[in-house]
Amino acid sequence: MAYRNAFQAKMPNDLLYQPSRKEASRKKPVFFIHKYFARRITANFRMSLLGFIEDKDADIADLFYKKSANNENITILDPFMGGGTTIFEALRFGCKVIGNDLQPLSLFVTKALVESVDEKEVNAEVKRLEKTVGEKIRSYYKTTCPCCGKKADGMYSFHVKKAKTDTACKEHRFFSSFVIAYKQDEFTVVCPKCGKLGKTQFENGVYVCECGWKLYSPKDTYVKNGIFTCPDCGETKVLSDYGLDTGYPFATDVVAIEYYCPHCKTHDYKSPDEDDEHLFRKAKKDFSMMEKVLPIPDQLIPEGYNTNQIRNHRYRKFRDLFNDRQLLCLGLLLQEINNVENKNVQLWLQLAFSGMLEMNNMFCRYQQNAYKICNIFFNHAYVPITMPVENCVWGAKLGTGTFDKTIQKILRGKKFNKHIYDLSVKKSANGRYDSIQVENGDTVEAIPVTDYANIDGKHPVLRCSDSRKLDFIPDESVDMVLTDPPYGANVMYSELIDFFHVWNYQSSIAKEIGFTEPVSPKTEEIIVNPIAGKDFEYYQTGITAVFTECHKKVKKDGYLVFSFHDKSLDSWLAILESIYSAGFCLKKCYPVQAETRTGAHTSNKNSIGIDLMLVCQKVSEMSSPMTIITEEIVENAIATTRDFLISTLEKFQKVEAEFTVPDIQNIAIAEFFAALGKNYLSDMTSKHLVLSKLQIFLDNIEEVAGDFEITKKRNGWWSELYRQKWNINN
Ligand SMILES: C[S@+](CC[C@H](N)C(=O)[O-])C[C@H]1O[C@@H](n2cnc3c(N)ncnc32)[C@H](O)[C@@H]1O
Ligand SMILES: [Zn+2]
Ligand SMILES: [Zn+2]
Ligand SMILES: [Zn+2]
To answer: What is the mean pLDDT of each run of 10 residues along the chain (730 residues)?
Structure first.
């Protein structure tokens, strides 16, 4: 057998549990160069690569932190490349790497992840751009400093949506909070009546504005769960019921500005004055005059599972997600980027431009207690909010998410390619784990190619197409497929990606960087999406087709390794069905920390925070004689699972892992089927036998788990802080 040693060594998945958690809460710098949805933890993929490459008596826990050995004789394929984690990790080992994804954005981001950047040239070009367009953009956000009267930078403009109404009020403003910020135990509050900003600690349980308006709690609001209630006229209305004729959802008022004054160094919030309002109107007017010549996307928002949420609020085009001042400034910036002569430099500027979009639109909220802007996709959806915060596009000294800051973030991130580290942890006196960065001398500087003929350890083949057909890869040439498939309806990639895609399509190098169509590919997307008419069967058939194609591309006895978790046994059966009908056999599994907890409430006891790395091996036709599944086989598998579970829980208890009941059930399901191995459900009768036994086992999992402390309730530090701080009046 060609891969006698693969996955025979002991996996340090327990020891890497805490480091992975650290990585989950703060990804490595290079993965910040651009958003991609559901980014993976590198540690799990590095561990899997070591597991595949190393001998059975290798100390993987130790090798994990050592310089990666060169393995150019090994070919790794990721057919769901996504944000490029597998590609990056496999390049550290000098493997021949092949990546493919349906989305051009995936290709764009992954190429940037592994390529090197000429920092000097990029900086020089940014300096030039600052002169040609940066200063102009900045001028649209200048504001008078209330302290010294000189010109300050407006960092963030706080908007509130409004609409006309037939009641005596004539107009309603949809305040979802009156708190602008919460800093050092002090709330900055805006008065909905007179517009004044005030600071308060709610000393006597109430804040009273100069005009007499009273606020009793920082949590008070006019908008709850998408329903607006007016305290004056009593009108109660679902926001999406306001029509375009009332001005909703585009009409807004700026109610506060966060500014930084370079002269007197004041950094604070102010009410907009006449000059600010004038500037905003001027931007609107300038935009209406220049609109035609600026590279602004005009694509309609297609119907979709996520997009219908904003279509219901009458957003029609992607450009509707921005106000006129943003469109003007973004258009001016992109126009200038399009004129950059050095195409290689332009690519990085385009990446920064695309990346900053998520922080420069009318769907960004403000994190009141962290006093910073929050990106549109923090929860993988288009959520219309009534108090969006407008960033200043080019950038000021302070603040995040602007073009200037994004460029710097990319350049900082790319330094990681030359100084790669992995995370280790040390337990500190207070019982918390501190992370330690262990640099190991690895570097990643590759030149992606599209033709397989040119593949080597420095020239990965990266492409963008449907992975059901991988004709560009010779059959039986891949040693291991290492991937992370889409999970049912978890993330609607193409719908969310369109937000970036439509702008990248406006680039003068759109074709070169892969954005050849006005909107992102949807037809071939493997996903569960009722609006797109894709049910679970469609999804499963798609996964099976890709796995089948992988089977063709994998060498004899080669591997398919991927991460998976799901709460329902049915989903597990579906993925197993795909594995087996594609011609693979589940050999092993090992639990690892997932990148986030998922579930209705990510912090509750029913959430899932553990992924299973499933190790499957290619079966040659002859070597799989059908066995009749007997009760004994099933009993044995259950026994193996119980032992595995107990030893896993023991190992993970030592590293203080948080496991919920669904986490443990997930591990049990995976291990059970791995133990069943080639005896996987061959016919309906055995299926019934197997499932009934497994179900009983799962139902009694808490008994098996014994004194392992199952997490009943998780409290993230943030929700904890939120609870403590914000309940001060209750
Ligand atoms: C790496 S991510 C998976 C993340 C995570 N497991 C989840 O969905 O929650 C899945 C990737 O599969 C890609 N994808 C979907 N259908 C595809 C297809 N037919 N061919 C290639 N890639 C596809 C998506 O564009 C996405 O980037
Ligand atoms: Zn000042
Ligand atoms: Zn007032
Ligand atoms: Zn009213």
So the answer is: 88 96 94 94 97 96 97 98 98 98 98 98 98 98 98 98 97 98 95 97 94 96 97 96 96 98 98 97 98 98 97 98 98 98 97 98 96 92 97 95 98 98 95 95 98 98 98 98 94 97 98 97 97 95 98 97 90 92 95 76 71 94 65 92 93 90 93 87 75 92 78 45 40
Q: Which atom of ligand 1 is nearest to the CA of 598?
A: 9
Are 266 and 177 spatial neighbours (Cβ–Cβ below 8 Å)? no
Ligand nearest to the CA of 488: 1
Rounded CA-CA distance 702/592 in Å is 20
C-alpha dihedral sign at 176, 178, 181, 187: negative
Question: Closest ligand to 170 CA?
Answer: 4
pLDDT of the residue at 725: 42
Q: How far is the CA of 397 from the centre of ligand 2 (A)?
A: 14
Which residues make Cβ contacts (< 8 Å) with residue 607, sequence separation at least 6? 597, 598, 599, 600, 601, 660, 662, 714
Atom of ligand 1 nearest to the CA of 38: 4
Tell me the C-alpha distance between 94 and 88, whole Å: 10
Question: What is the per-residue pLDDT for 720?
Answer: 43
How far apart are alpha carbons 591 and 593 in whole angstroms? 7
Q: Give the residue among 536, 693, 664 at the shortest CA–CA distance from 606.
A: 664
By the 8 A CB rule, do 200 and 187 touch?
Answer: yes
Whose C-alpha lies nearest to ligand 1, atom 23?
102
Measured from the Cβ of residue 114, the count of other Cβ atoms closer than 10 Å reads 22
Q: Which is the CATH superfamily of the domain at 17-116+417-492+527-719?
A: Vaccinia Virus protein VP39 (3.40.50.150)
**Ligand 1 atom 5 nearest Cα:** 486
In the prediction, which pLDDT does 608 show? 85
Structure tokens at 472: 């560009």
* Probe residue for ligand 1, chosen from 80, 491, 540 as the CB with the greatest number of ligand atoms within 8 Å: 80
Residue among 102, 500, 543 whose CB has most ligand 1 atoms within 8 A, to mutate: 102
- State the first-to-last Cα distance of the chain, in angstroms, to the nearest integer: 67
> What 3-state class would DSSP assign to 110?
helix
Cα of 256 vs centre of ligand 3, distance in Å, is 13
pLDDT at 620: 76
Domain boundary assignment for the chain: 17-116+417-492+527-719, 119-177+221-414
Which residue from 493, 501, 528 has its CB within 8 A of the most atoms of ligand 1, so it is best to mutate? 493
Q: Please tell me the predicted confidence (pLDDT) of residue 468.
A: 98
Q: Is 538 exposed, middle or buried (0-12, 13-18, 19+ CB in 10 A)?
A: middle
Q: 671 and 589 in contact (C-beta within 8 Å)?
A: yes
- HSE value, Cβ hemisphere, 13 Å, CA-based, for 118: 11
Find out whether the peptide bond into 460 is cis, omega within 30 degrees of 0: no
**Closest ligand 1 atom, residue 542 Cα:** 19
Q: Which residues line ligand 1 (CB under 6 A)?
A: 38, 79-80, 82, 100-103, 106, 466-468, 484, 486-487, 490-491, 493, 524-526
pLDDT at 726: 40
Going from the Cα of 403 to the center of ligand 3, the distance in angstroms, rounded, reads 36
CA distance 7 to 482: 13
